[in-house]
Amino acid sequence: MATPHIELQDNNLIAKTVLMPGDPLRAKFIAETYLKDVVQINGVRNMFGYTGTYKGRKITVMGSGMGMPSIGIYSYELFKFYDVDTIIRIGSAGAYTDKLNLYDVVLAKNAWSESSYAKTMGVSNKKKLAATKKVNNKIKKTAQKLGIPVHEGTIHSSDVFYRINGDEYKEIYEKQDAICVEMESFALFANALATGKNAACLLTISDSLVTHEATSAEERQNAFTKMMEIALNTKI
Length: 236
Fold this sequence. Notes:
The chain has a single domain (11-233), classed as Nucleoside phosphorylase domain (Rossmann fold). It is 33% helix and 29% strand. It contains 8 helices and 10 strands. A hairpin with a 6-residue loop joins strand 2 and strand 3. Helix 2 runs parallel beside helix 6. It is globular. The mean pLDDT is 95.
């Protein structure tokens, strides 16, 4: 059945595992670059989604948009109404430490947030939510086989991109041990708890709040291939 935000009528055209970048054009790039026999499954609001095969396995990739309300809507509809079992977010992040360089891959062990998303959903009053451990373990094994280093740790899911206090990240890094920042995973993990499903998050460092280095918009869309290949090769 179609939902308010996903037009697909046939659940059989969505895989049990969905890779979810924030940028719908990154979803398009992944589908065109890596998948075979691709079918577009969504175009509502230009939030592109595609299903195809990768090494014989059925895979769906779909954009989430920016921020927790956006990924909150799409991931919940996929979990609840389209029988998706696992969502792996594949996104960009800003480094909170000089131990992370541009293009490094980060696996979220858990996500800390100031957000009230989980509380409002009626899921949890906690400010730190964990990724699904069994999925993370499979991701780490896949990365090891591919020879791609992965940094695992706590990440910060923020509701705010432009903070007035630009140095606030230092306190978050020290108190929460959050090694980088993005804007979606806390809501994704909350929805997995709410629906009894699985969620994980792979990130590529796109910029650094410490060194002020940054990638371009085109690089964020097309060049984060290590993260993509880890997710594509992870068998859930």
